[in-house]
Design goal:
Blueprint: H1 4-17, H2 21-27, E1 33-37, H3 44-60, E2 64-68, H4 75-84, E3 91-96, H5 101-106, E4 117-126, E5 128-133, H6 141-150, E6 156-159, H7 165-177, E7 185-188, H8 192-200, E8 207-210, H9 211-219, E9 223-229, E10 256-263, H10 268-281, H11 285-293, E11 298-302, H12 303-323
Parallel strand pairs: 1-2, 1-3, 6-7
Antiparallel strand pairs: 3-10, 4-10, 4-11, 5-8, 5-9
């Protein structure tokens, strides 16, 4: 049996050999990082996560493991990353409007709040598009909107969760064209990839997602875009007119974005390190070329500005959810 003096000496040696919290932060990252995507592969969140993982893996020489954890409109994966994971910087979330501002706006007691995360930076901001199957009969968004007004019960449309961007956008559209949303049918999907697969297969009539999310199916000739929800046409899809240009909708109240977020207790130096790395990444020619290939609109915001941006969105979506009857 060792004497108490020997045990104390051994503990002292171990403490000297163990890295301090400060040293661990300085050495960060020292091992693989898990990047949580709260949706199925193939959607915009997944695409930007893989671009980011490739860049950061090369920059820091550590594996960046993209892990898809779909379910609950993104909340299952977001909770896993923000509430269940250790706040040590080795689990990050690709946070989007669905899992933050839209979710908070739609619920009086949301499962996740802004207090549950720290933002490092916004990476992407992308407009929404209205998509139908490639061989759909409608020539433009005005014609499609007129058909929906006349046949609301025949409209089956997809949404990523009960409080996702598809639903907010669709309800805004319904309000502006005078359609009772209850008469339409909403189908919940596990992400844009699942949504567009259902659209191409004829299981839904319409899908509303971001430009980047529509890119693969559009290039494959499986879907057709009727309108883009932005103040002006987009460089990636110059032939697609805006909703306002076609006299259907006014203003832009919903937009798609993706950011890097951490559990709230994550040390600030680690979050700051990511903020600086993302700022460098969005200027890197190789990264920008990758974003160009998937029609991703890079729009960086640093941590403090991102926080303010989301806080403003929460106010807007809370008001919007109340007015269109989805706040509960």
């Amino acid at each position: 049996m060792r004497s108490p003096r020997i045990v104390c000496a051994l503990m002292a040696v171990l403490l000297l050999l163990a890295p301090t919290g400060v040293q661990a932060q300085q050495d960060y990252p020292a091992r693989a990082i898990e990047i949580v995507v709260p949706f199925v592969p193939g959607g915009g969140t997944d695409l930007i996560a893989r671009l980011l993982a490739d860049y950061m893996g090369k920059k820091w020489g550590q594996p960046m493991l993209v892990v898809n954890k779909p379910g609950g409109g993104g909340i299952v994966g977001a909770r896993a990353a923000l509430k269940d994971a250790r706040p040590d910087g080795y689990t990050i979330l690709i946070d989007i409007h669905t899992t933050s501002s839209m979710h908070i706006g739609a619920w009086k007691t949301p499962q996740l709040t802004l207090a549950d995360r720290k933002y490092a930076a916004r990476v992407v901001r992308d407009p929404m598009v209205f998509a139908v199957k490639a061989d759909a009969p409608w020539k433009n968004f005005k014609e499609f909107s007129d058909w929906v007004k006349a046949n609301p019960g025949e409209l089956v449309w997809s949404s990523v969760g009960p409080s996702g961007p598809s639903r907010y956008t669709a309800f805004d559209w319904f309000t502006q064209i005078g359609v009772d949303p209850v008469k339409t049918k909403m189908v919940i999907t596990e992400g844009a990839g699942d949504s567009f697969a259902k659209l191409a297969g004829g299981h839904v009539v319409m899908a509303i997602h971001s430009v980047a999310e529509a890119n693969a199916m559009l290039k494959a000739g499986k879907i057709r875009l009727l309108a883009v929800l932005s103040p002006s046409r987009i460089k990636y899809i110059p032939d697609v007119p805006t909703a306002e240009e076609q006299g259907v909708m006014k203003g832009v109240r919903v937009q798609w974005w993706a950011s890097v977020a951490f559990p709230a207790a994550t040390p600030d130096p680690i979050v700051k390190k990511w903020e600086g790395a993302v700022a460098e990444m969005v200027k890197d020619p190789a990264f920008l070329a990758g974003a160009e290939r998937i029609s991703m609109n890079i729009d960086f915001l640093p941590a403090a500005e991102m926080r303010a941006f989301v806080e403003h969105e929460v106010e807007g979506y809370t008001d919007m959810a109340g007015k269109i009857g989805i706040r509960r």
